[in-house]
Amino acid sequence: MLRVLVADDNPVIRLILKKVLSEIVYVRVIGEAENGVQLIDQVRRLAPDVVFIDVAMPKMDGVKAAEAIFSANSNTFLIFATAHENYMHDAFRVYAFDYFVKPFKIERIRQTMERIQKVKQERDASSCLDELLTHLEDTGHRIAVKSNGRDIYIGTHEIIFITRRGRKTVIVTVATEIETTEPLQRLGDRLKDGNFFRCHKGYIINTTMIKEIMPCGNKTYLVKLINTRETALMTIEKIRELKAMNR
Questions:
Q1: How far apart are the first and last CA of the chain?
Q2: Is the pTM above the cut of 0.70?
Q3: What is the pLDDT of residues 207-225, one digit of tens each?
Q4: Is residue 234 part of a domain?
């Protein structure tokens, strides 16, 4: 359901818009305003999904009111419905979804509301997914990293180890390798799963993936891990720390 608020100083225009909108099954008009100050108050109290705004309104014009609404909640769909064509640039500066010039075409209003409904559904679905993934990260089951401009969610049980290669941090999993610019220390801090251990300044390992630990030089050990031919390094101090953790 799209919750709509209509703002226009002309009661006849408000009535026309409300009538057209009321005929759309997934739309509900929840309020109206006759000036910009009243509009901002109504938006604050009612939190509509969509706001129809006239430009020429008393006390505060529609453009300034739209700026205030957008600053408070950029997710509000703003539609300018006005007799003035020359405010279009100002309208889209505050990311107006559409701009109607009086007299309104009923079919155009319906098409715009249909587009808004689709965008809102996609936005709601994305928000639900983000909440789920955030919950999974909070419970230690997944971690989100940015890689090449994308958000990638990795099951923590799939991570074998994490290391540095040049300027990149590399997360080695059972299926692939993922590069990110996030520092090794920050990733380690975010991994709430108690199986992860900073075994060396350049490595974080999943202790459930350890296959063998063998001496390798003075005070350094080589860690062989399952599901990969790559190895990690561990200092003698970290060997002692790991043993103390598992007593």
A1: 57
A2: no
A3: 999 999 998 878 889 999 9
A4: yes
Report whether 79 contacts 98 (CB < 8 A): yes
- Beta bridge mates, 147: 150
pLDDT of residue 86: 63
Element housing 164 (H / E): strand 159-165
Three-state DSSP state, 162: strand
Provide the residue count of the chain. 247
Split at pLDDT 50, 70, 90, the class of 139 is low
Q: Please determine, for residue 136, whether its predicted confidence score (pLDDT) is greater than 60.
A: no
Pairing of strands 50-53, 2-7: parallel
State the virtual CA torsion across 97, 99, 104, 110 in degrees, nearest 10: -20
Residue where one domain finishes, among candidates 104, 134, 164 = 134
> Which tokens hold the place of 178?
């993922």
Do 125 and 219 belong to one domain?
no
**For tokens 């007593």, what's the residue?**
247
Identify whether 240 is part of a domain: yes
- Count the domains in the chain: 2
Contact 196, 140 (CB under 8 A): no
